[in-house]
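Co-fold these.
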Amino acid sequence: AAGVIQSPRHLIKEKRETATLKCYPIPRHDTVYWYQQGPGQDPQFLISFYEKMQSDKGSIPDRFSAQQFSDYHSELNMSSLELGDSALYFCASSLRGGGTWGSPLHFGNGTRLTVT
Amino acid sequence: AQSVTQLGSHVSVSEGALVLLRCNYSSSVPPYLFWYVQYPNQGLQLLLKYTTGATLVKGINGFEAEFKKSETSFHLTKPSAHMSDAAEYFCAVSDGNSGYALNFGKGTSLLVTP
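Predicted complex below.
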């Protein structure tokens, strides 16, 4: 079965640079979520999109922005990168459908961002 | 807001022994509860979920969890540990009031010894 695809798998940037992470959800899933997982930490929710509109907002820094495109793929844009932004960034998708609470999230394998 | 607390950041069991990973939730409304497993350098894989109905939920790889409202718990168990079970386990909650995103616990690292 098709899974959530994230690219790139690894990314190395310098401080103050910008980075763009891409996510391709499972076909027919209508909701995309972005999470950040620091070393040895639990995943922290950043932001989500439902049917291409921002849905929920978590602890996403102002330096970050995201959007979901007409083909449902999503991009997380990160500017003025800081050393503390080094983390695993996960994208997940779900089928929210007609307000079905409790739909599980399906995660990609993540993008490991290293800021030097 | 909903949250989960995982008791024990590290749990070590012998191969063949019972696995018990603890999770307690806090929610003002009936929660939806999940257990995910994460292997090194990989994404999170859903083990099982509780939404409504039967309180004993069976998942993949022989894991199961029981929703106990009176104890606000959703502990994960497996009768007999395998070496391949060594991984990080996360409990997560969503209650709908705070959106559809999941809030994760701090995780429990399971070590399985021969």
